[in-house]
């Protein structure tokens, strides 16, 4: 297993990358909200051949990441209909055949699982995905999981006395998966918690205990991602997070945040003194690729508040919604921009 990069400002991904048009119906993908239950209608490939096709598409994504020069790779989340439903819908206690309709982050109604019994992990969900990634690259690798707080917000609770209790059982399921992912060769495991931003009041009540329970006893580098929502869905974003500095108290080693599209006030990074910052410096609402100089300027602005030893460069989240050619061009700019900054501070 290769070691994590030791050079300053390594480049990484947040998770997703565009799925090929021959694999997924991108028209349907772009017309719908991120699915919380299964959305089999998105796939163009018959079920009997789908897993093989997803393997092929995943290998294409890995090769793109290597050609672009990214240091810490993901599998592009190519096998997923959304960042969260692949894991959440595999859990015992989730009724995905009779979903409930609840408001999403943008206020639009979306179908979500109904929690009808105790939530338990029945089997490993992403371990085979991780093993495939490990077998197809010699670079450092990261895999992502939905976090317990966000999953508790993406379900209709009909079994637990409150959402906090549900989040803690979800955390136990996540913890089992995280342990197995590290045992299978992960270098980094990242929990995705975008709903910390949109449900900040509830997050202050029980998010940190749930996140810490999900990472309890874990040996390996862990990250936590939070954001304002996909650029494709959310066009106007505030320049500050409603729930961010509190994450300095969570158990994750790294904190991944978007900053490019919202033009984040980076002074908040000075409040996060105990984490490596994975900073989103690619604006995914911009239909043109950044130049390497634009990326370098965004990283250098962050260096006013966080030392280079605690900084990584990444896109904002949601690359899956971009054309593949544009996503690749943006990754090349990311790698070149980080290289420019390293040379300037050497």
Topology:
Elements: H1 26-31, H2 47-68, E1 72-73, H3 85-88, E2 91-103, E3 109-121, H4 127-135, E4 140-146, H5 148-153, E5 156-157, H6 163-183, E6 188-192, H7 195-198, H8 200-214, E7 221-226, E8 254-258, E9 276-280, H9 292-302, E10 311-314, H10 324-345
Helix pairs in contact: 6-8, 9-10
Explain this structure to me?
The protein has one domain: TIM Barrel (Alpha-Beta Barrel), CATH 3.20.20.210. Helix content is 35%, strand content 18%. The protein contains ten helices and ten strands. It has helices at 26-31, 47-68, 85-88, 127-135, 148-153, 163-183, 195-198, 200-214, 292-302, 324-345; strands at 72-73, 91-103, 109-121, 140-146, 156-157, 188-192, 221-226, 254-258, 276-280, 311-314. It has a seven-stranded parallel beta sheet. Strands 2-3-5 form a three-stranded mixed beta sheet, with helices on one face. Helix 9 (292-302) links the parallel strand 9 (276-280) and strand 10. It is globular.
Reported CATH architecture: Alpha-Beta Barrel
Portion of residues in helices?
25-40%
Write down the overall mean pLDDT: 95
Written as H for each helix and E for each strand, in order along the chain, the element string is: HHEHEEHEHEHEHHEEEHEH
Helical run tally: 10
Note the beta-strand portion. 15-25%
- Computed CA radius of gyration, to the nearest angstrom: 19 Å
The largest sheet is: 7 strands, parallel
Give the tally of structural domains.
1
**Could you please say which CATH topology applies here?**
TIM Barrel
Terminal Cα separation, in Å? 28 Å
Q: Which outline best applies?
A: globular
Q: Can you tell me the CATH class?
A: Alpha Beta
Number of strands: 10
Structural class by sheet pairing and helices: alpha/beta
Q: Unreliable segments (pLDDT under 50, ≥5 consecutive)?
A: none
Order the strands across the largest sheet as they lie in space.
Answer: 1-4-6-7-8-9-10
């Amino acid at each position: 297993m290769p070691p994590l990069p030791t050079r300053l400002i390594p480049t990484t991904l947040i998770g997703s990358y565009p799925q090929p048009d021959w694999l997924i119906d991108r028209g349907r993908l772009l017309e719908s909200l991120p699915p919380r239950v299964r959305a089999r209608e998105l796939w163009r490939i018959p079920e009997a051949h789908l897993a093989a096709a997803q393997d092929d598409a995943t290998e294409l994504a890995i090769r793109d990441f290597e050609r672009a020069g990214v240091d810490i790779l993901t599998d592009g989340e190519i096998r997923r209909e959304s960042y969260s439903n692949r894991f959440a819908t595999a859990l015992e206690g989730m009724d995905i055949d009779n979903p409930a309709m609840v408001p999403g982050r943008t206020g639009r109604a979306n179908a979500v699982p109904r929690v009808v019994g105790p939530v338990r992990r029945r089997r490993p969900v992403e371990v085979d995905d991780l093993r495939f990634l490990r077998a197809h690259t010699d670079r450092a690798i990261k895999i992502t999981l939905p976090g317990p707080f966000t999953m508790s917000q993406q379900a209709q609770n009909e079994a637990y006395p409150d959402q906090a209790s549900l989040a803690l059982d979800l955390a136990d399921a996540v913890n089992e998966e995280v342990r197995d992912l590290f045992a299978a060769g992960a270098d980094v495991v990242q929990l995705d918690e975008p709903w910390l931003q949109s449900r900040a009041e509830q997050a202050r009540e029980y998010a940190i205990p749930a996140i810490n329970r999900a990472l309890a006893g874990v040996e390996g580098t862990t990250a936590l991602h939070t954001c304002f929502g996909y650029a494709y869905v959310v066009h106007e974003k505030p320049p500050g997070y409603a729930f961010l500095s509190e994450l300095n108290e969570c158990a994750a080693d790294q904190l991944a945040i978007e900053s490019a599209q919202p033009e984040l006030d980076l002074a908040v990074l000075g409040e996060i003194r105990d984490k490596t910052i994975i900073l989103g410096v690619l604006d995914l609402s911009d239909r043109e690729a950044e130049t390497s100089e634009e990326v370098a300027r965004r990283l250098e602005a962050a260096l006013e508040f966080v030392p280079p030893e605690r900084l990584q460069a990444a896109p904002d989240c949601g690359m899956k919604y971009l054309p593949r050619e544009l996503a690749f061009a943006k990754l090349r700019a990311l790698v070149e921009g980080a290289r420019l900054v390293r040379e300037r501070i050497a």
